[in-house]
Design brief:
Blueprint lengths: L11 H6 L32 E8 L11 H7 L3 E7 L5 E6 L13 H18 L4 E6 L4 E7 L2 H16 L13 H12 L5 E6 L6 H11 L3 E8 L1 H4 L7 E4 L4 E4 L4 H24 L4 E5 L4 H8 L8
Parallel strand pairs: 3-4, 3-6, 6-7, 7-10
Antiparallel strand pairs: 1-2, 4-5, 8-9
Helix pairs in contact: 3-4, 5-6
């Protein structure tokens, strides 16, 4: 029996259907003043750069910074270099499907929301004519898909993402791998060149020195946007009437009515979140918080159109 309707799992049909909601946002450099991506220092989110188009005579109003002094000296007449907007920018989505992502308290699992963000991003990137690829990872495997404009190939790796999502379950044989995030970023770093846009979609479990260093290195020559997936219960367990936690082998009940425990849990979550956000912010990497309750497409439109943050 499928659990796609109750948010436990997703499937390829659902991910393909999201193409109709992939609108009203973008990752391009020009953003409204309210966008989380506006006001970036340096020209990050370079998006489409500028390619040289032609050399022509200077006209009144031309930017003198584009003056070609070599041609001007050679001909004795002022010449300027004309540029056109580049038509290609490769985008890579890095999608977390590890065991810690298999959690959700109200609407959907974090793993489902991560898959949806990846699909919506893919359809949006294709719509503006850019190439889209992916790094899909769980606790034991990494799947790489090269950037492409071919819709069939995108559907191909979306199918692999759905299959990876379907493999998630809680039992004694499945162990989480805190190093998987660092391993996925290592694979990504060996894959990309310069001027890529990387959209990292994860709850950042396993954040450590290796992940921090990898993102810092890649951010020097690429643009990185992080979608941090979280569930409301991670912020406040006092809202849970009956909370049972399991690692696949053992399980125990948490008394969520104990105020001291609830406050300690919330403080721990906020501390971990603040650490990740703070370190990413220091390197100019924006963080887009995404919860498991509000439709993913709505959150992308809201976040990329306003400065929305966890409080």
């Amino acid at each position: 029996m499928s659990n796609t309707q109750d948010g436990v799992y997703t499937d390829l049909k659902s991910l393909v259907r999201l193409r109709f909601s992939a609108q009203g946002f973008n990752y391009l450099p020009r953003q409204s003043a309210r966008s989380l991506l506006s006001g970036r220092k340096r020209s990050q989110l370079r998006g489409r750069g500028l390619d040289f188009d032609e050399l022509r005579h200077y006209k009144p109003g031309d930017d003198i910074r584009n003056m070609d002094w070599r041609a001007t000296n050679r001909t004795g007449k002022p010449h300027v270099r004309v540029y056109k907007e580049e038509r290609d920018r490769p985008v890579i989505v890095v999608v977390d499907q590890r065991l810690p992502m298999f959690f959700g308290s109200i609407k959907k699992m974090k793993s489902v929301v991560a898959a949806e963000i990846a699909a919506i991003t893919a359809w949006r990137v294709l719509a503006v004519g850019d190439r889209i690829g992916a790094i899909l990872f769980n606790d034991t495997a990494i799947i790489e898909a090269k950037p492409t404009r071919d819709e069939r190939r995108v559907i191909g790796w979306l199918g692999k993402l759905a299959a990876m999502n379907d493999e998630l379950h809680i039992n004694a044989s499945q162990k989480n791998n805190p190093n998987a995030l660092a391993q996925a970023l290592d694979q990504l770093e060996r894959t990309i060149g310069h001027d890529y846009l990387v959209v990292l979609i994860s709850d950042f479990y396993g954040w450590n020195d290796a992940t921090r260093a990898a993102l810092r290195r890649m951010n020097r020559h690429n643009d990185i946007v992080c979608s941090l997936i979280y569930d409301p219960l991670e912020r406040d367990i006092s809202k849970a009437d009956n909370l049972i936690v399991s690692d696949g082998e053992f399980q125990f009940r948490i008394d969520s009515t104990r105020q001291a425990l609830a406050k300690e849990f919330e403080a721990s979550f906020k501390s971990s979140l603040a650490q990740v956000q703070g370190e990413l912010k220091r390197h100019g990497i924006p963080v887009l918080p995404v919860d498991t309750v509000t439709p993913a497409a709505d959150q992308l439109r809201e976040t990329l159109g306003s400065r929305r943050a966890l409080q």
